Amino acid sequence: MLSTSASGTAASSPSRFGSTALLLAAFLGGITSYSIGSLARASPTISSGSRTPTFGTPADFQRAITELRAIFPASRISTNPDVLHAHGFSLNTYHPGAPHSVVISVESTEEVSGIVKVASKWRMPITAYSGGTSLEGGFAAHPRGGICVDLSGMDKIIKINEADSDLVCQAGARWDDINETLRDKGVPLFFPLDPAPGATIGGMIATGCSGTNAVRYGTAKAEWFLNVTVVLPSGEVIKTRRRARKSSAGFDTTKLFIGAEGTLGIVTEATIRLAPLLPTNVAVAQFPDVRKATEAVGEILNKGVPIQCIELCDDVFMHATNNYGISTRKYPERDSLFFKFQGSPESIAESARVVDEIVRAHGGSGLELAKSEKEAVDLWADRKAAHFSGLALVPGSRGWGTDVCVPVSRLPDLVYETKKDLEESGLVSTIVGHVGDGNFHSLILFKTDEELEAVRGAVHRMVERAIRLDGTCTGEHGVGIGKKEYLYEELGTGTVELMKLIKRTIDPLGIFNPGKVVAHPARLELECLQSSNTPDICSFIQMTLQHSLMVESIPEG
Ligand SMILES: Cc1cc2nc3c(=O)[nH]c(=O)nc-3n(C[C@H](O)[C@H](O)[C@H](O)COP(=O)(O)OP(=O)(O)OC[C@H]3O[C@@H](n4cnc5c(N)ncnc54)[C@H](O)[C@@H]3O)c2cc1C
């Protein structure tokens, strides 16, 4: 079987795969008309992973744990099987999980740095864990085990700079706690990125998250993080920049860690930007179908109406909400849009008038604006309860939640084709989407292993469909283990190889969250080649790559 090793790469001699890749690059370079998608675009200066990380032996790992036990009090270091399991598996994912060898609860940047130095000495994988809400297997241990650094206790707000609309906090601070603290202190500001309740600033940075507010405030990849303090794989601590609102001083190294999922560094502190807390109100409208709803969204966005959120909920979701939602309200069971407007009451009334006109022009039912604060809270709570209302549709079922994202105008095709596919597969699923961004989530239900396999197939086809529609395999959940096989197809070899080059440079031992985000090149290049339309050249390259993989053993990854 071919290895699925991560990026990683650090031992002492170049592998045969590396030399083969160079030979192939030279071969491909001579074929001017040749175009097999991403492989042909690979830069010759960014070569495929040429070194394989060699982790320490089980005895080395035991030595590392002994050293760590000498540093940490017994209450903060654990090899209890239940604790190891809880930090390596998630009820929210169905990707292969694995228990860590040891879990350490940290309290400071210095402690994280100390652990990294031990991990590096014994070449032991090291994975950060914060809120534990991520959905793509990001915090699962490496199959060989490793150290899990639990940052959930580093949850302090260090300083609120109200005059500058920013806040300095530790990486384990949860976004919902931050907003509650600001509210309790009477500070009229909030942090607008809103993934799962309980998600932390460190995990949100690592996954490049967003949520319902992204239509107004953008994602983690916008400028919500002014700086981050990071422990690098060398154990060195860096702070990426100061607190000024903007800076054009060199590369944007803060962004390097956004979406890196702990593969380049462990974030221990951050300065986050805050937004003014404005009055909001909520409304709902029904449409004949998703296409009409999405067309209305495009027009509303282009009118510049001050909208904080636009959420699409399909008819199945509305049915689930009628039965299991938080409020007692009964909704028409049709494809619907939920809106959150912001501004003064007069401005909201004007926004609602404009949106109502557009909704009706697209065959919609007309907009129902909440008439009281309680009604607004109830409406939004029903939307936010999507996960649990969906699960309740099939008692005793489990749900596979996943996301993809396409340009807004392509969303109807994606939703239509996906719903048809799910129906044909006999699977029950609800669909909700941050439709203002073209971001689409489905929660697909299953009870048996057979159904789980059917779900896995449906998710794969959904991702392929999104990429075909010029979209992405993940709009906000990140890559983890679950989406890494799609990166070559989506981003192209040159871009993925650039990521690997950065990974190799920063983490030469390959110990930071190995096996996540970037996959081993060989297997994916084979897959990429299989789907190309140049069979002769492909079979030559396949043969060569397969040969190189057969003669080389790649134990880790
Ligand atoms: C019901 C539900 C709803 C959700 N809704 C949304 C949504 O609307 N939008 C959205 O974007 N996501 C959503 N998510 C996914 C999840 O909330 C996000 O991915 C979130 O950003 C994860 O943060 P966390 O603190 O839980 O990270 P974790 O799950 O602890 O970790 C995530 C990844 O980051 C790494 N990591 C953790 N901490 C650090 C650190 N300090 N430094 C470096 N690496 C680190 C981990 O190793 C792992 O790879 C939802 C999940 C659930 C269960």
Automatic annotation (TrEMBL):
Record domain FAD-binding PCMH-type: where: 94-277
Cofactor(s) listed in the protein's UniProt record: FAD
Gene Ontology CC annotations of this record: mitochondrion
Entry protein name: D-lactate dehydrogenase (cytochrome)
Enzyme nomenclature, EC number: 1.1.2.4
InterPro entries per record: FAD-bd_oxidored_4_C, FAD-bd_PCMH, FAD-bd_PCMH-like_sf, FAD-bd_PCMH_sub2, FAD-linked_Oxase-like_C, Oxid_FAD_bind_N, Vanillyl_alc_oxidase_C-sub2
Keywords on record: FAD, Flavoprotein, Mitochondrion, Oxidoreductase, Transit peptide
High-level lineage: Eukaryota, Fungi, Dikarya, Basidiomycota, Agaricomycotina
Cell compartment(s), UniProt: Mitochondrion
Pfam families in UniProt: FAD-oxidase_C (PF02913), FAD_binding_4 (PF01565)
Organism: Botryobasidium botryosum (strain FD-172 SS1)
